Amino acid sequence: MRIFMMMLVVGLCSCRSTGQFQVSGHPPLTKENISKINGDYNSDAWKHLKLLRGKYQDDPSHFVRLTARSENLIEAKLMTQDQTILAEALLPGRIKENGYFSATRKVFLIPIPLLTWYSTLKSDLILNSDNDLYVAYNRSGFAIVLLFSGGDKDLNGAIHKRLR
Q1: Helix H or strand E encompassing 47
Q2: Is beta strand 133-145 parallel, antiparallel or unpaired with respect to 115-127?
């Protein structure tokens, strides 16, 4: 039982944040100007926000429309050129001190003795000086089955051009 508890504590403490990403010259987001994130971005933003639900296809004619509903909520829609909504999602989060919007989603914890699974996804949305969207995302998780454990982490980022 001690081994199990030790593995659980080490697994939970080893989570990595997206860190303090430095995007040169980015205008900081604040509660007053969160609407600066409103706009249409290329369809890859849907994939990098890890919103793979609905009828997602990697189609260059699709685009993602982001709309700030409040300082703590951004609405994302995957749309076609004729304004048909293929999928939509809400990104709850908050504005961080460094001027970016941070959303943490998809947290699963199954704490059954000798069978534990944990997964989380964090996305940071940053506007650069050209008003393009930089998405830094971190996915991490681990599992413990009996006395065997494993885990993985993915830290990545991508720039998405503002279309409108």
Answers
A1: helix 44-48
A2: antiparallel
d(CA 1, CA 94): 38
Is the distance from CB of 68 to CB of 55 less than 8 angstroms?
Answer: no
Would you call 131 helix, strand, or coil by DSSP? coil
Give the pTM: 0.71
Long-range contacts of the stretch 116-122 (C-beta < 8 A, 24+): 116/8, 116/11, 116/143, 116/144, 117/141, 117/142, 117/143, 117/144, 118/11, 118/12, 118/142, 118/143, 120/15, 121/50, 122/17, 122/18
Q: Tell me 27's DSSP state.
A: P
Q: What is the pLDDT of residues 67-104, one digit of tens each?
A: 999 999 999 998 899 999 988 888 899 998 888 899 87
Distance CA 49, CA 135 (A): 7
CB contact at 8 A, 161 and 69: no
What's the pLDDT at 69? 94
